[in-house]
Each structure stands twice: as C-alpha cells, then as structure tokens.
Design a protein that fits this description.
Blueprint lengths: L3 H17 L4 H27 L4 E3 L2 E3 L1 H31 L4 H23 L3 H12 L1 H7 L1
Antiparallel strand pairs: 1-2
Helix pairs in contact: 1-2, 1-4, 2-3, 2-4, 3-4, 5-6
C-alpha cells in the first residue's frame, strides 16, 4: 500500500509537466484526458481499500474513508471537466480567442489545481502545508529550521 498515495499525487504532477512542455497545444488536451483518467485509476485501489475500512497512515500521508470520498469525487469530476474542456478549449483555439500556448497553460494549471486538491485530502495535517508555506516565505524560519 505504501507508495499508492505518492502515485496518486504523481499522476497530475507529471501530467501538468507534460502539458507545460508540449510543443503543440492540440496534444495537450489528449494528455490532459489521459492524465485525468490515470488519476482516477490511481485513486481506485486506494478508495476501494479505504471504503473497506483500511486506513493508510505513513510519513505525512493519511488516507481513510472520508479522504477516499473526497478523492473519488475530485478524481471523477476532474475527468469529466477534462473531457468537457477539450472540445470547449479547441473551439476557442479555432475561433482565435486563445492561442495554442494559452491552451497548454490552461491544461497545466488545471492539473496543478487537481494536484493541490488531492494533496489537501491525503496530507496528515494541514499544519504541514502551512509550515511549508511559512518556510518558503520567511527566510528567518528557514535558518531556524536548519
């Protein structure tokens, strides 16, 4: 079971990176749908085990039934939004409202957003995220932590 949470978080992160470095925006929509499908597939065994009563707790990760519910909802909605936005964004590109670069940026930001939502549901404590933000923003805290 260890590593499943990391896989769940790695899929949208890698999808965002791939979308960012795509040479053409048209393929970014395909990568986005595949990444959203991969996120849903990665979430399925974790959710199945958690709904069965298994609680996954190691390092900074905590995954129980409530986490599974939110992850399942997030992954399924992300897949639907990804499917819907492909046609919508493509129409905007064809009409000249946005560029291919804008399309890639949209799909990159979309998957980073999905990553952040999933991260909130599986992290052991929100204080961990707050501590990371403080360490990143305040150089004095970084010196004290070292």
């Amino acid at each position: 079971m260890n590593g499943s949470v990391e896989l769940l978080l790695a899929v949208p992160a890698l999808t965002a990176l791939i979308c960012f470095f795509m040479p053409k925006g048209r393929w970014a929509s395909v990568v986005s749908v595949l990444g959203s499908l991969g996120t849903a597939v990665a979430a399925a065994p974790l959710c199945y085990n958690a709904f069965g009563g298994t609680v996954t707790e190691y390092s900074v990760w905590y995954f129980d039934g409530l986490s599974a519910l939110f992850v399942a909802v997030t992954a399924s909605i992300a897949l639907m939004v990804s499917l819907y936005s492909c046609g919508y964004i493509q129409k905007d590109v064809e009409d000249g409202r946005i560029t291919s670069r804008d399309e890639r940026s949209y799909f990159t930001i979309f998957h980073l957003f999905v990553l952040m939502m999933l991260l909130v549901f599986v992290v052991l404590t929100v204080n961990f995220l707050v501590d990371l933000a403080y360490l990143a923003l305040d150089p004095r805290l970084r010196q004290e932590a070292a």
